[in-house]
Amino acid sequence: MRYQNLLFLMLLLFVTNKANAQVLERKGILDLVINYPQSGQSFSTVRSVQPGGNAAAAGLQSGDTILSVNGIRLTNDIQYRNYLRSLGPGKNATLVLRKGGMVKTLSLLTNNRIPEQYPGIEVIYDQVKTPKGYSVRTILTKPATSGKLPVIVFMQSLSCNSIEINADSNRRGGDTRVLAALIEHSGFMVARTEKPGMGDSEGNDCADCSFTDEVAAHEATIRYLKKRNDVDTNRIYFFGSSMGAAIAPLLAHQHKAAGLIVTGGFIKNWYEHMLEFERRRLLLSGNAPGDANKTVADFALFYTEYLLKQQTPESVLKKYPALKKIWYDEPTRQYGRPATFYMQVQATNFVKAWEKINVPTLILYGEYDWIMSEEDQHIINEILNKKKPGLATLKIIPRMSHDMFIHPSMQDSFNDVNRKFDHAVPSMIMDWLKKQ
């Protein structure tokens, strides 16, 4: 009788745990792309509208100014993103707009996020639990092939953008176009992790997500993949883009990646990177070399206080008011991420991480990448090939930008104009994978 009671209790516990396991809900979306409010503004503008969607049917057009949503004025991108994420599918959204000088009110229903679809490919929407207890969305694509399959684990760039691939290929970024090609043609499973606070993922808004939390989310996905029966755990490759190219080597040694693919990455500490970046940005913005040189000296003081002494930009500017003239971002954030994110990046020794790598690595870099330094790619290449000649392969792709588009010039890359996608990039990755 005692054993029967114990069995009953174990069964009850199992059923209770299953009942308490929350399935991550799909979020509703508005069928438009928005330019979020800039600092100090109380409105956003419509960048583009999905043809045939609810927003287009309601009369929204590119260039419309959104004054409020459901009576709420949303004054910054974080409020706006959080509010839109809180709306489930099929919810009413009443937008007050300024259209052509007139104020109008339009109502529309939020749509379901449309699942990705590819011929002959299964798309698996799942979730993993992070160390902090919240769940993040995983998206796994699987070719219609039996047996255990190799996997590409994609680690995305810095920006707070959803990792889901838009059905309209013309609205895809360069990295998602590469991903789509790998999904459809590589024969590999491809895994992605939605950042905390983005898309369907739980957690604080992406703008408040730390670097360590973002790394932990990717790590949770890797552990999830290793438990799947359809994954060849000896053939898990990490593919990192931009900031993801720095995360990939951090996790590769511990989790025994079979190989690495990195594009537009860095290896120097973030302080060094930012000084090099600011000089390139200033010159491409039209500043005279001498003026740029003087401003970089000011940035050296600014980033010393911010990154090395771990003070927020707001605190730095209070201490050194003269530096206000060079600062172009928020008091406690930069490029949409918290200042603490970059402090954690600065504290991370990426050189040490690369020194632990002993697996084949493909390093891709665009000739017209003005964001990251070509020198960093050569440093990574040299570290690996000193261990074993041929361990790393470095490809400098002519006229390619950081975003993996081809431009006629570096200036066009900086201005993000006159761009086209080069399908040779995903082909280059697939050719390299076939040789491993």
Summarize this, please?
This protein is α/β, with parallel strands linked by helices and 436 residues long. Helix 4 (174-185) crosses helix 14 and helix 7 (270-284) runs antiparallel to helix 8 (289-308).
Which SSEs are present, and which pair or pack?
Elements: H1 2-20, E1 28-29, E2 32-35, E3 44-49, H2 54-58, E4 65-69, H3 77-86, E5 92-99, E6 102-109, E7 111-112, E8 121-129, E9 135-143, E10 149-155, H4 174-185, E11 189-193, H5 211-227, E12 231-241, H6 243-252, E13 259-263, H7 270-284, H8 289-308, H9 313-319, E14 333-334, E15 337-338, H10 339-346, H11 350-355, E16 361-366, H12 374-387, E17 392-397, E18 405-406, H13 410-415, E19 420-421, H14 424-434
Parallel strand pairs: 10-11, 10-12, 12-13, 13-16, 16-17
Antiparallel strand pairs: 1-7, 2-3, 3-4, 4-5, 5-6, 8-9, 9-11, 14-15, 18-19
Helix pairs in contact: 4-14, 7-8
Helix content: 25-40%
Number of β-strand runs: 19
Percentage beta strand? 15-25%
The largest β sheet comes out as: 8 strands, mixed
CATH superfamily of the largest domain: Alpha/Beta hydrolase fold, catalytic domain
Distance between the termini: 58 Å
Category from helices, strands and their pairing: alpha/beta
CATH architecture group name of the largest domain: 3-Layer(aba) Sandwich
Low-confidence stretches: 1-21
- Highest-level CATH class of the largest domain: Alpha Beta
